[in-house]
Design goal:
There is one protein chain. This protein has 119 residues and is an all-alpha fold. The protein folds into two domains: 12-52, no CATH class; 57-109, no CATH class. It has helices at residues 12-17, 19-29, 36-45, 48-52, 57-78, 95-109.
Length: 119
């Protein structure tokens, strides 16, 4: 399992010792091209001390939005207790959330040929 190319193993202790190397490992695993400056910025922003610092209102609002999106994703896609029928999303999404998802879907899946039946 450890040699599976679809899995990345990182240990907390190794990240504590050398966070920039852990970020590089993640970047390599995800096949993302980032320069050293960006990797350093990500590592710095990911330290425990920086993450627990009080954020200004704009950053807090942005993080709250990301947290809401993650929660919605978990509730909608990952919950084992869903009804499991096509179109159930209408019971979960507000009209605004539906519009936001449609925009995201169009952006992320454009040109892929991947389609889903939502109804």
């Amino acid at each position: 399992m450890r040699d599976d190319p679809n899995l990345l193993f990182l240990k907390y202790e190794d990240m504590k010792k050398d966070l920039p190397s852990a970020v590089k490992a993640i970047v390599t695993f995800l096949e993302v091209d980032l320069d050293e400056s960006t990797i350093k910025s990500i590592a710095e922003a990911s330290t425990f001390n920086n993450m627990k610092v009080d954020l200004d209102n704009s950053k807090m609002a942005e993080r709250q939005l990301i947290a809401r999106k993650a929660l919605l994703y978990i509730r909608f896609f990952a919950s084992p207790y869903r009804h499991c029928y096509v179109g159930d999303w209408k019971n979960m999404f507000t009209p605004e959330q539906s519009e936001a998802f449609d925009a995201w879907y169009e952006e992320k899946f454009a040109g892929t040929g991947i389609t889903f039946d939502f109804e």
